[in-house]
């Protein structure tokens, strides 16, 4: 079997396929005004994510009156599918905000351009200061074809008031799945819901699934490229999350209902992306004390969460549109762009120096500690692993819909379910 592709904070994503040739950089201004399209899953949503994305668009427009960006709101789960359809129709978006669970398949099936080649002489100075390992997640055939944009690691949001009411110390939050369980039991005893792992979400993202399996000592794909979603470690990790549901410590509801439950002050702990931080802060203001802590361990080893979120890819084949797309991508991944992403949406700052820069995020982090625990875990994040082949995203959907959700929310047998789904994924991704 062909070795799997790994999107990692320590190992580059290497994917098959040919890069389209890129023209030498041109001055956008010299071509007059130009319009490009931006396919985004945060644009057009509700709350902080939409407001933050609009703030990015407004700031770019003010600085680049010669470039008009037309945003396209696309649900997270549909971004890759829609991009494929648009390419076939001859109307591909110029810039796409693409989740990492879909990146490997996109590199196989979309005309993804080399951002590094489009940027030309701008490249080295621009990427200096961006988390270098995350930049490498977008490597394709020796050139960077995706830049990290909205990135996070799953974190534990918790209601400090519910902790106190349950006799728990909010200054000593749980660090392991056993401690999460104990805290949930205490909170449930006071008449509230205990914990919710956002492991089965509408976007079909598997970053929490991978974080659980990683932290239990396993992986969805082995070093040799074999699909290992049904390993003993994977079964153990998902069984532990399932037990929270079957024992009444975790509500058997969808992620949106869990978010509403936490926002209303009736859920003690929520394990999710920091992308929801902005909305949760708004809900908690004046109602309860909101805090965060790191993703828990699931075995004798340390916690090994992987990262979630999206990179930016360029599909334009026209040289002028490529340069306009580069100006847009360059702004989104600039100090100003990343600061807006952090302050207004809740993703992690991918330029470390922004945290201590008084012109950018120093004041924000002095007043807001929610992102500190996940920011600390980002330094030791585990690889995001992609299934092999051009059906990688279909394999993720299969894992999430036919294994994770039935196990965690509907009581399906973990071993039998993972074995059956593992066999189907192996067949789907066989090279």
From TrEMBL:
InterPro entries: Bact_solute-bd_prot1, SBP. It comes from Nocardia jinanensis. It comes from the Bacteria. Keywords: Signal. Residues 1-23 form the signal peptide. The lineage of its organism: Bacteria, Bacillati, Actinomycetota, Actinomycetes, Mycobacteriales. Gene3D superfamilies: Periplasmic binding protein-like II (3.40.190.10). Pfam families: SBP_bac_1. This is ABC transporter substrate-binding protein.
């Amino acid at each position: 079997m062909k070795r799997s592709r790994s999107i990692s904070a320590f190992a580059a994503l290497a994917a098959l396929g040919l890069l389209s040739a890129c023209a030498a950089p041109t001055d956008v201004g010299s071509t007059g005004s130009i319009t490009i399209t931006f396919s985004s899953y945060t644009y057009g949503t509700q709350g902080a994510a939409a407001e933050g994305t609009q703030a990015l668009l407004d700031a770019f427009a003010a600085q680049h009156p010669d470039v008009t960006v037309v945003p396209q709101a696309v649900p997270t789960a549909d971004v890759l599918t829609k991009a494929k359809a648009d390419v076939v129709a001859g109307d591909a978006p110029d810039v796409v905000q693409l989740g990492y669970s879909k990146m490997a398949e996109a590199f196989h099936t979309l005309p993804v351009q080399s951002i590094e080649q489009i940027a030309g002489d701008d490249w080295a100075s621009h990427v200096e200061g961006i988390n270098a390992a995350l930049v490498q997640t977008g490597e394709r055939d020796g050139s960077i074809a995706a830049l990290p944009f909205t990135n996070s690691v799953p974190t534990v949001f918790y209601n400090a008031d519910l902790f106190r009411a349950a006799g728990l110390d909010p200054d000593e939050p749980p660090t392991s799945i056993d401690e999460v369980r104990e805290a949930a039991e205490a909170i449930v005893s006071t008449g509230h819901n205990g914990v919710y792992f956002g492991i089965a979400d509408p976007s079909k993202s598997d970053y929490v699934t991978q974080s659980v399996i990683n932290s239990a000592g396993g992986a969805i794909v082995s070093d040799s490229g074999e699909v290992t979603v049904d390993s003993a470690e994977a079964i153990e990790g998902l069984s532990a999350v399932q037990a929270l549901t079957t024992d009444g410590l975790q509500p058997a509801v969808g992620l949106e209902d869990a978010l509403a439950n936490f926002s209303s002050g009736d859920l003690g702990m929520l394990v999710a992306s920091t992308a929801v931080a902005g909305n949760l802060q708004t809900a908690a203001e004046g109602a309860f004390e909101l805090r965060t802590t790191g993703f828990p361990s699931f075995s004798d080893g340390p916690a090994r969460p992987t990262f979630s979120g999206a990179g930016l890819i360029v599909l334009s084949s026209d040289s002028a549109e490529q340069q306009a797309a580069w100006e847009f991508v360059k702004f989104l991944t600039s100090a100003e762009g990343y600061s807006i992403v952090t302050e207004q949406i809740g993703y992690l700052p991918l330029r470390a120096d922004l945290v201590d820069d008084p012109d950018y995020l120093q004041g924000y982090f002095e007043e807001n500690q929610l992102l500190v625990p996940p920011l600390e875990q980002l330094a030791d994040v585990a690889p995001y692993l992609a299934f092999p082949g051009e059906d990688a995203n279909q394999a993720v959907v299969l894992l999430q819909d036919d294994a994770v959700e039935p196990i965690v929310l509907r009581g399906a047998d973990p071993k039998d379910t993972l074995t059956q789904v593992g066999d189907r994924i192996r067949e789907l991704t066989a090279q």
